[in-house]
Each structure stands twice: as C-alpha cells, then as structure tokens.
Design goal:
Largest sheet of chain C: 5 strands, mixed
CATH topology of the largest domain in chain C: Nucleotidyltransferase, domain 5
Structural class of chain D: alpha/beta
Shape of chain C: globular
CATH architecture of the largest domain in chain C: 2-Layer Sandwich
Distance between the termini of chain D: 19 Å
Number of strands of chain D: 10
CATH superfamily of the largest domain in chain C: ATPase, nucleotide binding domain
Order of helices and strands of chain D: EEEHEEHEEEHHHHEHEH
Oligomer: heterotetramer
CATH class of the largest domain in chain D: Alpha Beta
Largest interface: A-B, 51 and 60 residues
Shape of chain D: globular
CATH class of the largest domain in chain C: Alpha Beta
Bound molecules: adenosine-5'-diphosphate, iron/sulfur cluster
Number of helices of chain D: 8
Strand order of the largest sheet of chain C: 3-2-1-4-5
Number of domains of chain D: 2
Radius of gyration of chain D: 19 Å
Largest sheet of chain D: 5 strands, mixed
Chains: A alpha/beta (about 425), B alpha/beta (about 425), C alpha/beta (about 270), D alpha/beta (about 260)
Distance between the termini of chain C: 23 Å
Helix content of chain C: 40-55%
Strand order of the largest sheet of chain D: 3-2-1-4-5
Order of helices and strands of chain C: EEEHEEHEEEHHHHEHEH
Number of helices of chain C: 8
CATH superfamily of the largest domain in chain D: ATPase, nucleotide binding domain
CATH topology of the largest domain in chain D: Nucleotidyltransferase, domain 5
Radius of gyration of chain C: 19 Å
Structural class of chain C: alpha/beta
C-alpha cells in the first residue's frame, strides 16, 4: 500500500507513552483480582455473582463477599480470543445463535469448568441479579441458579422513563435492599454493619470522582484521552473494585497521567481530526482492529456511552455515605441501559454539545437487544433532527463470527471520507469571497 | 390483500354478555354476534386477521369508542376496559404486511412482531388507536415504547415496568404505583376519572372470558380431536380483537358446538407447544403441526387471556390486579419463574399427558430461546422427546418445518 | 420381496433396490437439475436395468428427501432423518450418531440400536454449512468436485473461513487466493469450516460412538479427514453410505410391507 | 499538462475502468470479470480502457482506485471508497440526483448526496448477501437463465410469486421448489425482483427517499429491477447505460479534483 496516497494521511499510530503507566497498573489490578480467587484457601470467602448494571458491590463488600461479574469475565475472554470456544459449547447445550454473547460465553465457560487463561472462576454461593436495564439478566441468572443451585436474589430495578425517579421507585428499591441485607446476615452469620457500609461508600465516592475527572478530560481540545477504547480498560476498577481504596487510588494515577499528557502534548493521535461520540458495546473480539479504523482517519472518541453502563457518574450521581440506601437505589436506577430511549437520546445530544463531537458512531450488537433495538431510530434522529453526522455499524461484542472487518472498514472509510469532503467544501466556501 | 370486512348496520339488544356503563357495542359487530357456527366464526376470524387495517377497531371507533393497543402479555387490559375503552391485542402484522421501514429503525436481529408493530406505526396502520401500552416483557418490547414516543408523538404510549421480585412485600405496592402512572395517562385519553367500581366490573367481565378460555383449553387437552389447533387458535385470537362483550357470547356458542362434536380420535401423538407466548406463528404452521400427526394438547398461544386463572376483585380492585400478576401460578418465559424450569416443564407434560414437547420459538425471541435449554435438560432427564424450531410471522415455504415435524412424529411413532 | 428406496435430494436423486430387506441389489443416482420427477424415473429405470428387474417387480416403493411427495406411485414417504438413520444402521449396525452433509443442509441425529431417531438437528438458518457451498467453491477455484478432497489432503496449514455467509465466504476465499494461500490449505480450510459447523450440530444431539457419515460428502476424502480431525474420533465411512437415505427408506419400506402382508390392516402413521 | 485521469473500480464481481479527458469527456472504458488475481485484474482493466481510448499509460496523469479491491490498485495515486465515487458519478451524469442506489455484485447501498455530489448519509445492506446482484445471479442460475435475460422476463409476469427467503442460498431452494410446484419462471422472477426492490427500499428509507433517484451498479442494467424499484418507490429512477461505470467515473472525477486542487 506504500505507493498509494490514501485520502487521509495515515497517522503514525498511538504515541508511544500513551496508555502506558495507568495501563500497567490496570493490568496488575486485573491480575490481582483474578489471582485472589486461585489463592483463597478453604474455607474461602463467599462468592457472589453480580451484574455490572446497577450492581450492589458495596453492600456485598461490607459483608466480606468476593464479587464475580460474569459479564467482565466474558469480555476478558473475548479480548483474549477465548470467547468462541465457550460460545460454541453453549450452542451445543442448546443456546440459540441469537442469544446474547455474554450469556453464551459465560454459560459455556461455566459448563466447561470455569477455567480461563487468567484464572479459575469460582462457583457462586449467592446470585444477585440486578435487573437494571436488561431482561436478559433475569434469564441468565435463572440459568445460573438452575445449574448451581445457589440462591438467587432478584433485585428488581424499575426502568427509568422520567429523569427523576418516583418516590415509589426508591421505596421499592430500599425495601429490597433491606431484604438483601437480611439474607446476607442469615447466610454469613454476620450482623449488618452500617458503618462499614458507609466507609465502603466513601471509597466508592472517591473512585467516582476520579473516574469522572478522567471522563471529562475528553472535553479538552485536543482530547488527551480515548474515551471509548481507553475506557474499556479503565472501567474495570470503577465497576469491579468500587469501594476498595485501590480503585480510588487507581484513578489518581490515571488522572496524573492525563495531566502529564496535556503537559507534554502526548495525545492519543498526533493530530485530532475528528472528535467522535461512540454509542454501543464494543466488539471485544476485535477491538484493536476496530480502533485502527478510527486512528487511520485521525478520529478520537472524546465521549462514549458504553463506559456509563455501570452508572452515569458524569451526570452528577455519587454514592453518598450520608444516604446509604437511597443513594444505592438511585445508583441502580442510573445504569445507562436502564434509561428509556427519550432519556438516552437526551444524554447523547448533551454529550455531543458538551464534548464538541463532530460525529456519532453507533456500534450495534447483533445479540444485544437491550442496547441495540432502536439504535436505527437513534441514528435517524441524530441525522435528521439534530443534524449530527452518524454512522451505524453492526457486529457482535462476543462472537468473532459476526465481525466482518472489510465491511466495517469500508463503511468507516466512506463515512470519514464524506466528513472530510464536506469539511473541505465548507472551508473552500468560507475562504472564497462571496 | 383480501377485501375489507363488510360490516352491515344493525340495531338491537345484545343477546348475551352485558356491556358496562359507557360502552356501546357498535352495530357493526353484527356478523360476530350473529355467527352461529364455528365454521363461520373461523371464517370471520381469518378475514379479520388478513386485514392489517384493524377492521374491528375501526368499527368500534365509528360508534365513538376509543381504543388502546396492548402489546402482549401482561398488559392489564381490565384497566383500559374500565374506562370504557377497547383494549386491543397488538400481535404483529401478519403475513400480508411488508416490512420496509421498521428494519432500519429497530435493527436487524429482532423478532418479527416488534418489527411489524413498528412498521404499522410508521405506515399509519395504527391510526385507529388512541394510545399504546408496552409491558416490560423483554428489552425489545420495552424499547419499542421509547421509539413510539418519537414516531407517534400525538398518541400516548406507556411502558409498564413489570416487577420481577415476587417475594418482597414492597412489590405489590410498587406495581399498584405503576398502574397508577398508566391510569393517569388513560384518564387523559378517556377524558374521565378512574373508578374502582368500574374496574371491579371489568375484572368480572375478564374473569368470564378467562373461564371460557379455560374451558376451551381443557377441551383441547382432553379431546383434541374435537377442535383443530387452527380453530382453537382463531377462537382465542378473536378475543383480543373484539370487544369482550362480543367475544364472550361468541366463544360460549363455539365451545358448546365443539364439545358436542363427534369426530374420530386419530392415532396421533400428544405434544405440547411451548414458546409462542408473544409473537404468533402462522396459521399454516399451526395446521402443519397437526397435519404431520400431532395433537397439540397444551400450548402457550394467546397467553394474554390466560396469564392468571382468575382475578378476585376484592376490596381494592387495583391491588387485586397487581396481586394477580405477582402471585400467578402460570409460568411463561417472560416472567422470572419462582419455580424451577425443570419442575415446571415436567409438571406441564404430566398434566397434559404429553408424549413430546415442541419448542416453537419466534426467531430472535431471546427469552424463549434461553428457556429452551433448561427445559431441554429436564426432558432429557426423563427421556422425553422434544423438537426445537423457530418461526417468523412471514414465511411461504414450510419444507424445512415439515421435514422436522415429520421426523419428530416418526421418531415417536416408529419403533 | 423387492423394495425400492428413492431419495429425492435437493441436488441429486439417489435410488436403491433391496431384496428381502437384506440384500442390496442395485444403486443409482442422477442429478435432479430442477426436474426431480424425471430424474427419479431415470434412476428407477437404471436400477431396474442393473438388477435386471421390471418396474412391476418392485413390490413397495418408499421415498424420502426434499421431493418425497413428488412421486405419485410411492407407497410410503418418510423424512430424511428417519431414512438416513435406518440406512446408517443397515450399513453399520453399531451406529449411534449419523452425520449427513447434503446439498442444502447438514443434518445430524442420534439413534437407538434399532435405528430409531432419538434427537436430531439441522442447520436451519444458513446455507453456509452444506454441500452447495463446496460445489460453489469448486466452481470458483476451478477444481472439479471429485478432485477437491484428494487435493486438500496435502494441506499443511489450513486456512479457516471466518464468514458465516456462504456467499460472503466465497469472497473471502477469493481474497485468500489473491494473497497466495496454497490451494490445498484453502480447500482444507473449507472442509474444516464445514466440519466445525457439523460438529456443533453433533454436539447439540450428543456425540457417542459409533459415528457414521452418510450423504454426498462421504465421497469427499478431504471432508472425511476434516470431520475426523474435528471430532477426534473414528468415523464409519463406506461408498454405499452415499445412498444411506435411499437405503434406509427401502429398509423401512420392507418393514412396512411385511407388516401389511402379515396383518391385514395397517396402523396409522 | 494534459489532464487525462482514470478511475479503476474493483468490485466484488467486476472491474471497471473509465478514462476521462479534459472537459471530463469519457475517452475510454472497460468492464471485465474479477478473478482470483485482483492486482492483475486491476491492471488489465486499466489497459483495456486505455486501449479503448487509444492512449498509452504515460499519458494518464492521475489514477484513482475504488471498490472492494481499491487497495489492490497499486499503480494508483489515490483511493476513495465506492460510496463517494458513486455519489460523484451520479451527480456528474444526473446533476439533480439526491439519492443514489447502487446495487452491485455483493452489496447494496443507498447514498444521499447534496447538490455538489458530496455524500450526506449512506446505508448498506448489513447481514448477508441477500438482495444483491449475487442473489439475482444465483437465482438466475437456478432457473437456468443468464443474468441478462431475467430482467426482461420478469416484466412478462402475470402474477408475481411471493419470495420470502432472506438468504441467498435458501432463496435458490425456494425458487427450485416453486419450479417443482409448476410455477411460471416469469412469475417467480417477478417475485424475486419485487423482493429485492422491497429490501432496497428499506435501505433507501434509512437515509431518506428524495427525488431524484439515480440507480447505479451492475444491477441497474437489469430492466426488471429498474421497473420493480420504480413501482415500489412511486418516483422515476434515473438509469443510463453508463450506470455500471459510475463508480469508476466518480473515481476519475475525484482524481481530477485532487489534481486541480493541488495539495488537498
Ligand atoms: N464425487 C464427489 N466428490 C466430492 N463431493 C461430492 C461428490 N459427489 C457429491 N458430492 C457432494 O455431495 C453433495 C450432494 O450431496 P447429496 O447427499 O447428494 O445431497 P442431497 O441429497 O441434498 O441432494 C454435493 O453438494 C457435493 O458437495
Ligand atoms: N446486463 C446485465 N443485466 C442484468 N444484470 C447485470 C447485467 N450486468 C451485470 N449485472 C448484475 O450486476 C452485478 C455486478 O454488479 P457490479 O456493480 O459490477 O458489481 P461489483 O461492483 O460489486 O463488482 C452482477 O451480479 C449482475 O447480477
Ligand atoms: S445488556 Fe446486552 S450485552 Fe449486556 S447482558 Fe444484556 S443483552 Fe447481553
Ligand atoms: S417475541 Fe419475544 S423478543 Fe419479541 S417482543 Fe415478544 S417476547 Fe420480546
Ligand atoms: S449469511 Fe449468507 S448464507 Fe447465511 S443466510 Fe445470509 S445470505 Fe444466506
């Protein structure tokens, strides 16, 4: 390709020190997290399975539980190219082609014994299902309960159709939280310790502050962060380790590094040509290839919705030790997928303005209806009602069979090509007198 | 497209089933009130289904009534009814609807019912409705509501959050609050306040319908040769498309005829059909199941009429309605099951004395797909044969389906 | 007693004649070319000639396959699964799992000792897993169908196909050719991809020995090897397994005929 | 400097090349089938178009590659996606065009453009190869016809048969099964064309249907498709014998711009 002058100047790729130190620390945290499962002696600490959206980490942590997030295990498998094997196994168990890839990856992996290249996934003693924005959660946890015989606590989180929750919603959630606390007291033989919970919540809050500072760096021009691809890594502590001092400290390191980037002019790309908002779950199986498609065009994601699946902290929410249960309830309601389409549309429109995004790229997931059903309408709304150039592409988050690189690349090329052309035309019109 | 249903004018008393205050049954329903034989009713039902313009709803409107479209399964139609509005089951666009715009708005890997429902909204076919209710039975139905607010901004659409925690004491009060949010919108559409008395009356009307539906279900289970699956289905399907006051007497007449029918009991295998609790298979497919030598003695078709056995009006009818959802003993794939799936399916097989299970799941219907695995394990444990097939609202060739159904029947019949 | 079995497949019509349900008298096949009935008549004629038997001497004719209803003079028709299962047991009595890769569909079924189908599964949604795909590749790669298997055996580093779509997979293959991937590796890649799809069907019904391969791809040594490598188990393969469905329907026809001649009335079915 | 430019469009099925003289006159063009050696095919396409134009290689100042195989046009100086190229080409032939529908061998695209031929929005067929030229090729083959014949035949249908298979390969079997049920091939063809038109319309609606519509790509040579699309859309559709070359033409035009705009 060397003798072809392609329309965009092919960028030199990521600056060398971009994504270095914090990334190393993140790797260490991940290793420690999975490593802990292997090293816990018999009798080990109790293990609860939980979902990222609307999770109740703090409460479980205050009872000394280790928490496993099957979604995260699944995405780690996918990043390491181990998802297909699990998915195929799940299909042989009878899970259909169109079942969510997370579910198939996880249930396939469980049935194969839970061994991954990054550690052994322990069996659950308790299944906490936060039904917060995805119905598949309910079915998934039902399946886990049936295969493990572990008790299932269903934490039913009302769907958000108005920006502020109703009083009844909060009351319903708080009541359920107390029921969970009683269940945990019974199972662990420990008394609930409100002070411990408050302490954990304070740590959560500190991590949340740091995480939001990181996300907001995307508002700078040029952006020192990659809000989509980089966040995929940096989401781990906020979702999984929230409530531990380590998580909060992690964001201190990250933000220090972001400040250094600004100081040293060390940006994700040498030249930020396009600022984009990315909506949707990433294609974990091929995220590097996908990232390259952006880089090639000088496109940096300055804001993304996916990092908000664990909560819309950047829109103001914080866990609050002075209102422990109420704030946990509000947290669960605030998962990104738990927002109705009118609310999602508003969030996205706000982001486009706040982060000065030039365009939106929607990545639809074949097997995730919760996120995806209606993204076509979103695209239509962005283009026609908001005047924001938007591209819709589709693959899968877990199943490499549905990632068609040539097709995706073709679309992204054409999209950025047209953005560039329009920009050139506008510039020419601006320059030409009259 | 078949001709519109011809509806003549008619004036007279309703022969059966009394309309509650404020409801007047349009004379346009004469064909249904007069239809005497099952054959005639089935014919009328087919005409209604073949017409995507909702002829029965239009007829209702000509008499000045309002109509609310209800997505399956757990929409509290009684609430709509208590406002003297017609609750109409929205169950897809059928075989004659071309999908061209909904695909783009919704996405490619989604069930047909969601696409056809949106297509109807985009092409004006839902104009006879004054509002819509989407229960949270899955992420697709839930998201549809959010899209409806954009594509049909003048017609209120409401998403009802159905709780999944059935043990919390806070669940029923929460669901009552959910109903109240819906009631607020219904009050605005109907232009009158909610009345618990009217709701109590509506609960009784629906109980009457439920009892009849149950009688038909029992007949199909105990004497499957007396009523074909297609007849059975169409009789139920009409229930969501006619004013209840018209459907109830019609169903009563039909059941009386069917119970008295003399037909030969064929040497067919007894199967139960699980999965089509939301999107509905085509009539051809239903017929094919019995054509290859199966009797369907249990099913999940038209669950909107039978997601709970009966609702006692009680002192607070709204609370009773909520209680019925939370405490219903009926397991469907779109309600987190308190029992285990294994026990549930074996109990259903035993109750129907079934020899096999046919999983008939709508293509891309994730809740149904996920259940199949747990059911399958339980059936294998007992050595019970099963077959899993997917269907869509639209299909013209049934070769693959026939091949699999025949094999299934042969595998049970042949030694 | 002579029973005939006709398998009206999507691509090829196959037929057998069976004597007393035990002895195979003749086999024949013809491409259906969109005129299955004519092709079937031709197969029947050929069978008669080979076995030296007049058409009237066939006591009972049982059909199977895609076009099983197309022959009016049939006495019985059965589904492909049922017939392939019986055919496989006829050839290899210890068969417990049958794999059939035909023109349009791959199928697999687990069976009892008597050849009764217990569980079965076919690729319903996508044609990428069947013989037609191999035929297309043969056209694109300009390698005759019969040579594809032998050529593939030389492969050292098979190039798997990632696309799930039969049509898009073609483009992928063309790209591979352009990139200089050796032909043998491309071919073996095709077979392995097909085998993996078949494998997931097999896993769905449960894999247990003995596994018998039937249908068109029996004739393809490359496919046989790929399947063997994929499932990591020995496979029963025999030339007559190409006719398994036809054979199975003849066997079932014989059983039925016996029942009819011993008992005056048949039971429903 | 005589500004002769060329555009080479390497599609999934065919390679097209257009050589454009000054005043943007078409000096020569070529169309050939894409085989396994894409690099060679690209070269051959250029050679053939040059021969048609009676020009030699050094006389061409700028070459632009487009299409699926655009990165294999090693001798070119620029690559542009076929989406931008079809937009530009359609704008050149029919300046009033606001929506371009390109049905090629393997994909279908709907491209909304502005008055300058710039892409405003586009959509492509997602899932499989259903609804594309390949779909028609496969079905034509199953019925024993040549692709060139099926369009005119479909226009003679009396009652179109409904075709619902979404899969190219299964559509083939659906077609075969209709044949065995004795349906008239003309009626089946009409059904196939209608089914593609419907699918195409859905794609067009994704970007918004606006007059004028210009139909490009190889399938635009199929009268049956033109007719079916017109019927489904209700507005006339621009087509030209050059339609299949619009990608290559657009590429050449992009190259010319790049050349005259200097360093863009
Ligand atoms: N001699 C051969 N060598 C390799 N493959 C063959 C040969 N004959 C047939 N096949 C394969 O078998 C397939 C046809 O299988 P068959 O079982 O006859 O299908 P069906 O019954 O569906 O018509 C063809 O698609 C082809 O791939
Ligand atoms: N004369 C013709 N009549 C009908 N269809 C044609 C004709 N020529 C080409 N086609 C169709 O056009 C398709 C190729 O389109 P083309 O735009 O050249 O594809 P690509 O750019 O993807 O290679 C073929 O698949 C064929 O169906
Ligand atoms: S939100 Fe999507 S990806 Fe996550 S569990 Fe639900 S369906 Fe799967
Ligand atoms: S058919 Fe299934 S996926 Fe579709 S709306 Fe109904 S329950 Fe949801
Ligand atoms: S992906 Fe390809 S082979 Fe599969 S259904 Fe689609 S067109 Fe058919």
């Amino acid at each position: 390709m060397s003798d072809v002058v392609s329309a965009p100047a092919v960028s030199g790729g990521v600056s060398r020190s971009f994504l270095r130190d914090a990334r190393g620390l993140q790797r260490k945290l991940v290793e420690e997290y999975y490593g802990a499962f292997a090293s816990v002696d018999q009798p080990r600490r109790p293990v609860a399975y939980m979902l990222v959206g609307g999770n109740l980490t703090e409460i479980l942590r205050s009872f000394g539980y280790d928490v496993v997030f099957p979604e995260i295990v699944a995405l780690n498998c996918a990043i390491k190219h181990q998802s297909l094997e699990n998915i195929l196994h799940a299909e042989s168990l009878g899970y259909g082609l169109d079942v969510c890839g997370y579910v198939k990856n996880d249930l396939g992996l469980q049935d194969l014994g839970g061994k991954t290249s990054f550690g052994q996934i322990p069996r659950p003693d308790l299944l906490v299902c936060s039904f917060s924005g995805c119905y598949v959660y309910v079915k998934w946890w039902e399946a886990l309960a049936e295969s493990y015989g572990a008790p299932l606590f269903m934490f039913d989180v009302p769907y958000m159709r108005e920006e502020t929750p109703r009083q009844e919603d909060i009351a319903y959630l708080v009541s359920q939280l107390w029921e969970l606390v009683h269940l945990l007291e019974k199972r662990t033989g420990r008394a609930f310790d409100m002070n411990e919970l408050k302490r954990v919540l304070a740590e959560s809050r500190r991590a949340e502050d740091g995480w939001v500072e990181f996300l907001r760096a995307g508002r700078l021009r040029p952006s020192p962060i990659e809000a989509y691809f980089e966040s995929i890594f940096y989401m781990f502590p906020i979702n999984v380790l929230r409530g531990t001092p380590g998580a909060a400290d992690f964001y201190d390191v990250v933000n220090e590094e972001v400040r250094a980037r600004v100081r040293d002019g060390n940006y994700p790309l040498p030249e930020e040509k396009f600022r984009v908002l990315v909506e949707g779950v990433p294609p974990y199986t091929n995220y590097r290839t996908f990232w390259d498609f952006f880089r090639k065009w000088g496109a940096v994601s300055v804001v993304a919705t996916y990092p908000k699946v664990g909560g819309l902290f950047d829109r103001g929410f914080r866990h609050d030790p002075s209102r422990p249960f109420e704030s946990i309830a509000e947290y669960s309601l605030g998962a990104y997928v738990n927002q109705s389409w009118p609310l999602r549309r508003k969030i996205i429109a706000d982001y486009v303005k706040e982060y000065q995004a030039d365009a939106v790229i929607i990545h639809g997931i074949k097997s995730c209806r919760s996120f995806t059903a209606g993204q076509g309408d979103l695209r239509d709304w962005l283009i026609h009602d908001q005047g924001v150039p938007t591209l819709y592409i589709e693959s899968d988050h877990q199943d490499p069979r549905y990632f068609a690189p040539a097709q995706i690349k073709n679309r992204m090329d054409a999209f950025f090509e047209s953005l560039e052309q329009r920009r050139a035309v506008a510039a020419a019109a601006g320059a030409a007198p009259g | 497209m078949p001709e519109l249903l011809k509806i003549g004018s008619w004036a007279g008393d309703l022969p059966d089933g009394e309309a509650p205050a404020g409801i007047e049954i349009s004379p346009d329903f004469r064909e249904f009130t007069e239809a005497e034989s099952v054959e005639r009713i089935v014919h009328l039902a087919q005409e209604v289904l073949a017409d995507p313009t909702f002829p029965t709803v239009r007829a209702w409107r000509t008499a000045g009534g309002k109509a609310i479209g209800c997505f399956p399964v757990y929409t509290p139609q009684e609430l709509v009814h208590s406002f003297a509005m017609m609750p109409v089951a929205i169950q897809g666009g059928g075989e004659n609807l071309e999908i061209s715009r909904a695909d783009a708005a919704l996405g490619s890997f989604l069930c047909s019912i969601s696409k056809s429902t949106l297509e109807m909204a985009l092409t004006g076919l839902l104009d006879p409705f004054d509002g819509f209710v989407f229960p949270y039975i899955c992420d697709v139905s839930r998201n549809l509501d959010g899209i409806f607010t954009r594509v049909l901004p003048q017609r209120p659409s409401h998403m009802l959050h159905l709780p999944q925690n059935f043990t919390s004491p806070a669940t029923i009060p929460f669901l009552v609050a959910e109903y109240r949010s819906l009631i607020e919108k219904l009050e605005r559409v109907a232009g009158r306040p909610f009345s618990p008395e009217d709701l109590r009356a509506s609960l009784e009307v629906f109980n009457e319908q439920r009892a009849l539906v149950d009688r038909l279900v029992v007949l199909k289970r105990d004497a499957p040769w007396k009523v074909t699956l297609v007849e059975y289905y169409l009789l139920l399907r009409l229930g969501g498309l006619l004013p209840r006051e018209v459907h109830i007497p019609l169903l009563r007449r039909a059941i009386a005829e069917l119970e008295g029918r003399e037909r030969k009991n064929k040497d067919a295998i007894r199967v139960i059909v699980l999965g089509p609790f939301c999107e509905q298979p085509t009539l051809e497919l239903l017929q094919l199941i019995e054509d290859v030598g199966c009797y369907v003695v249990g099913d999940e078709l038209q669950m909107l009429h039978r997601w709970c056995p009966r609702i006692e009006p009680g002192t607070d009818p709204l609370e009773s309605l909520a209680t019925s959802y939370v405490r219903t003993p009926v397991d469907i794939g779109v309600r987190s099951t308190p029992t285990t799936k294994a026990a549930a399916i074996l109990a259903r097989v035993d109750a129907a004395k079934a020899q096999g299970v046919l999983f008939l799941t709508a293509k891309f219907c994730e809740p149904a797909l996920e259940d199949v695995v747990l059911y399958r394990r339980a059936l294998e444990g007992r050595g019970l044969p099963y077959l899993h097939m997917e269907f869509e609202e639209k299909s013209t060739t049934y070769e693959q389906a026939r091949l699999q159904l025949e094999t299934f029947a042969e595998s049970i019949l042949f030694e | 007693m002579i029973t005939g079995g006709l398998d009206l497949g999507a691509g090829v019509i196959k037929g057998v004649l069976l004597e007393d349900g035990r002895r195979l008298l003749a086999t024949a096949s013809a491409p259906s070319r969109g005129i299955p009935v004519q092709a079937a008549r031709h197969v029947l004629d050929t069978l008669g000639e080979t076995a030296n038997i007049a058409p009237d001497d066939i006591d009972y004719l049982c059909t199977t396959g895609f076009g099983r209803y197309a022959i009016p003079e049939r006495n019985l028709q059965v589904s492909d699964f049922t017939s392939s299962a019986r055919g496989a047991v006829f050839l290899f009595p210890k068969t417990r799992l049958v794999v059939d890769v035909g023109t349009q569909a791959s199928r697999t079924m687990s069976i009892s000792e008597t050849g009764k189908v217990l569980k079965f599964k076919m690729n319903e949604k996508c044609a990428a897993g069947a013989g037609r795909f191999v035929e297309r590749c043969s056209k694109y790669l300009q390698v005759p169908l019969e040579e594809m298997g032998p050529k593939a055996l030389a492969s050292e580093r098979p190039k798997l196909i990632s696309s799930v779509c039969a049509v898009l997979a073609e483009t992928e293959i063309i790209n591979n050719v352009a990139e200089g991937v050796p032909l043998a590796d491309i071919l073996m890649g095709v077979f392995l991809s097909l085998s993996q799809r078949a494998h997931s069907l097999m896993r769905y019904v449960g894999i247990q020995p003995e596994v018998t391969l039937v249908g068109g791809l029996v004739r393809n040594v490359g496919m046989v090897k790929a399947l063997h490598d994929t499932i990591g188990m020995d496979l029963n393969v025999a030339p007559d397994a190409y006719y398994a469905a036809a054979l199975g329907s003849a066997v079932l026809g014989h059983a039925r005929l016996q029942k009819l001649t011993t008992a005056p009335q048949g039971v429903g079915g | 400097m005589t500004a002769v430019v060329a555009g080479v469009d390497i599609g999934s099925t065919t390679a097209k090349c257009v050589v454009l003289g000054e005043d943007s006159r078409i000096l020569g063009k070529s169309l050939s089938v894409v085989g396994v050696d894409i690099v060679k095919d690209a070269e051959r396409a250029l050679e053939a178009a040059l021969a048609d134009a009676h020009l030699s290689r050094p006389e061409v100042s700028f070459i632009t590659g487009t299409g699926y195989g655009r990165y294999k046009v090693y001798f070119g100086q620029l690559v542009v996606t076929e989406i931008s190229c079809h937009a530009r080409g359609a704008n050149f032939l029919f300046p009033g065009t606001r929506l371009v529908v390109d049905i090629g061998g393997q994909d279908t695209k709907a491209i909304r453009i502005d008055d300058k031929g710039e892409v405003v929005d586009f959509a492509m067929n997602d899932k499989c190869a259903a609804g594309t030229g390949r779909f028609l090729d496969v079905c034509a083959n199953a019925l024993g016809y040549d692709v060139g014949e099926i369009g005119p035949l479909s226009l003679q249908a009396r009652r179109a048969v409904k075709v619902t298979s979404t899969c190219t390969v299964f559509a083939e079997s659906e077609v075969t099964s209709y044949v065995s049920r004795g349906k008239d091939p003309k009626d089946i063809l009409a059904g196939l064309h209608a089914s593609i038109a419907n699918r195409t319309l859905s794609l067009m609606q994704r970007v918004g249907v606006e007059p004028e519509v210009t139909f490009t790509g190889g399938v635009s040579q199929n009268e049956g498709m033109v007719h079916a699309l017109h019927r489904r859309l209700g507005v006339p559709v621009n087509v030209s014998p050059l339609s299949q070359y619009l990608g290559a033409l657009g590429a050449a035009l992009h190259g010319r711009e790049r050349l005259s705009g200097g360093a863009a």
